[in-house]
Amino acid sequence: MRIAMWSGPRNISTAMMRAFGNRRDCAVSDEPFYAAYLDATGLVHPQRDDILASQPRDWRAVVARVTGPAPGGRPVWYQKHMTHHMLPGFGRDWIDGVANAFLIRSPEAVLLSYVEKRAEVTLADIGLPQQADLFDRVADRLGRAPPVVDSRDVLSDPAGTLAALCVGLGLAFDPAMLSWPAGRRDTDGVWAPSWYDSVERSTGFAPPRPERGFDDLPDALKPLAAAGRPLYERLERHRLGATGG
């Protein structure tokens, strides 16, 4: 089983990768389209040169890799994908052959976290329009909504929400997903030193902290949050609760 988990940045996407990576039956991959995305856009991100050297830059080569044999021959392969990495020119037919799930977080919280690491931001940078497009593609093919989990639900009830996610994916829940050893992993992207300081200290999902809302945003970010809110709410309506409802 190949699982493509689609998230925007500044979510708990790396912690989710830790959870799946702690399963004995599961291999994990960290943002395999990152180098292709940077090469195509020319954007300057932290450790850009390291990223470009660490992964294929051609999206076709990335697709061949993520649809090829699973690392270590594991029966489950969890792939952490950033929605904004899927540029319009990148082929998407491969998505129809994997189990897709969506990890969401409120745009206000994402924006406030994002600008702590990178001053300039657009709506495309936080991946909400792309996430909605990918969701629609998958839902249209399935004839139903694919699994959607909200980061706050995961943090509030890790066992219940992850169990519901596993049911939605057709995968048995493993309690090993609830905790993991601290530290960096060989499977982490080379960009880990710039982004993964918190998750490297973690040993499980931390309780949710109060998230700031629209009124807490700087004026410059409010139009982005207002534009992103309907996209988030469209996916949020389909999120799995602790009982899978």
Architecture overview:
This protein is of the alpha/beta class and 245 residues long. The chain has one domain (2-236): Rossmann fold, CATH 3.40.50. The protein contains eleven helices and five strands; from the N terminus they run βαβαααββααβααααα. The protein has helices at residues 13-21, 34-41, 48-54, 59-66, 107-114, 128-142, 151-156, 158-169, 192-195, 197-201, 222-236; strands at residues 2-7, 26-30, 76-82, 99-104, 148-150. The chain is globular, with a radius of gyration of 17 Å. The model has no long low-confidence stretch (mean pLDDT 95). Belongs to the class-IV pyridoxal-phosphate-dependent aminotransferase family. One of its GO terms (biological process) is branched-chain amino acid biosynthetic process.
Under the CATH scheme, the architecture is 3-Layer(aba) Sandwich
Name of the CATH class: Alpha Beta
Shape: globular
CATH topology: Rossmann fold
Low-confidence stretches: none
Keywords: Amino-acid biosynthesis, Branched-chain amino acid biosynthesis, Hydrolase
Pfam families: Sulfotransfer_5 (PF19798)
Organism: Lichenibacterium ramalinae
InterPro entries: Class-IV_PLP-Dep_Aminotrnsfr, P-loop_NTPase
